[in-house]
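The data layer described in this paper is built around a simple, fixed record for each protein. We quote a single record here, exactly as it is kept in our systems:
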Amino acid sequence: MSGDPYGPGPGFAVPPMPQAPPPAPPDGLRAAAVALLNLSGLGLGYALVRRWLPMAACWTATAVLLFVALPADADGVPGTALALYGVLLVLAAAHGAVVGLRTRLTGPAGAPLALLLAVLLLAVPAGGALWYRDARDEAVQQALLDRLERADHLVEAAGRQPFATARSDYRTALGVYRDLAVGHPGSRAAGQVPDRMRTYYTTVGAPYGRHDYCAAVEPLTYLRTVPGTMPKRQLGSLARWPDERLATSLYECGAAGLKDDAADWVARFGDLLATFPRSAPAARVAPAVDAAVRKAEKDVRGDEPCAAVERLDSLHSRITDLARSADGAAGTADDLTGSAGRASRSGKAGQYSCGVHQFEDGDFEAAQKTMEGYAGDEHGGNRERAKKIAIGAEVARTLPAAGKKLPTTASGGGISVTVKNDSPDDVTVLYTGPVTGSFTLKGCGGCKAYSLTDTLLTGFKPCDDSGRHYPQRTLSLPVGTTYFVHKPHGDSTATPASDTARLRSGYIYTECAYTTRTLGSGY
């Protein structure tokens, strides 16, 4: 028998080498270690069982998450990213447990040591989560502080503009402060809101600090609305900060308007009395108004009496309106009513001085109107002379020379002047000179108006019909120049006729009124 004594015998074959190590016996401890190691997000469980591709997938997922999450900001990691990453970790742990159950670990480490390492490595994602939470909280704090800073800059810029222009910016900044205080009460930004509100109030109310009281009224009024939107704990004493300043501004602005006769002083004083009726500035309103009335009364005796009368009339009207709005301050309302009454009386009395001033300035139409108004008041102390001045002014409107001297209340004289009416209409005769007066003659029955041609004929003499009884009146006037104006009685639109009579002793004069297209006269 021949053959290799060490080779296989007849009919014997060598089995092929295995392609992979035989599965290890199931080991739950090892499976748990691989699963927990994968939960760290680093795929270390796959490394111990030589699964490189899944390990690379874990590293990639973790890297993507870090790329999305870092640097930490106020918005944090998107919820979808966190959910997907969490699902990946759970799948990696489950898959690792399945693989580790029948796969031996690489290296000398046994399952207990790997499990201990896995438990320790869980601190990595847990610590990372805590660090990220702190970083995100800091990012939120910084974002809130940035909002606070932007609001501060908005207030600072608004302070350089008029309040009407800056109002919307002030409201925007106030909204930010309120959101920080109410929506983020524990933040560092919220802790700084009280200080910012002090700056806010002083910036909005800056016109008061510059003594620009009229400009301060609107912003200070706005500041009184702020406590309705901000928590009281954020304001403290600021809630009452505008009150005294607004009361002072309303008074000072109203007093300046009263002095300059501006239109808004009544509104300013009215707001003051309605809003702060018991304040010190409110107590100064009535004396200030009374002082304005007294000054206007004094001005009646000055160079511009008509302006002073107009001022007194205006004061009477406005003070009356103010007194009606001062119901909350009874004593002030009574004082104002008294000042209004005195302004009315002084204004009426001052019309006489105004009329004299207008006459002397040659404004005869205004003088006539003023004196007629004064004479119509039965309480006027100079009514009789006012009537004379009104007549003189009306005559001077036709004959300006009649206005060179102010009419007096003198009467009588030694020269007889008979005035006749050769007109079918009633005629009012006005005369002024050494003596001033007026009267009305009835129309002449049977008389007629002359044509213009008649008046141009040689020898034309009205009032010359001896057989006719002309309505007439005889006056006794002094020597000197007397100015006559005749006008149809009650017809203010007709052109009056006029005549200038230079009277001398020893003569008897006749003045005749007749009608043409306009009224003529002669003597």
